[in-house]
Amino acid sequence: MSNKEEDFIPYFKIRWAKRSAWTLEQSAYLSCGKDPDLKNYEIAVTATNPISKRYYWLVNKLKKEYLEIVETVDGVDYFNTGSLFRLLEEKFKTDKDMRKAIDHMYDVPYGVDHTKFVSRAVYREAGNLVFKQYPSATKSEVAKAIKELPKFFNNDHHGHIETLESHQIEAYLKGINDLTGKQKTIDKVHVVVDLAQLVEKM
Known about the structure:
About 45% of the residues lie in helices and about 5% in strands. The chain is mostly helical.
């Protein structure tokens, strides 16, 4: 994978892959590589967007009893993440990065390690949150502040990321902050981050 900013994977795909259950609407969004939290598409029988088409295809599957509800929260039905995505993959072209994220969270099948893929997304999201708190910090300062992130992130619930050197993390932070030019000594900041709290925010 290159280090071009546009080639980094959005963290929301990792965040959603962690969930063991999705709604039909959420799975329709994610199979297209879109964030369900943004709700940018109309979901209607007459809508022609791919998300709406997938949603109603899943509704028909549910009516035919191909889908099993795993839990209902506040009247909303949730279904097994892997089952939903597998069904959509069989019928439609799905987002390849979403598949990698799901594979990484569920036992990394066939010995394919997606740790590097997940690491890029996680370090970028962590860096983004730190830059919001310290907008005048440099990439170098932020990279050093989140260097110990794996100690707080790595577990079965979150997934696993690589332990990297600061200069390697810096490469992952490309394009996040808009600080230009060299930082003056007077502008230097002491970046202090509670990494356990940062992981919770993610």
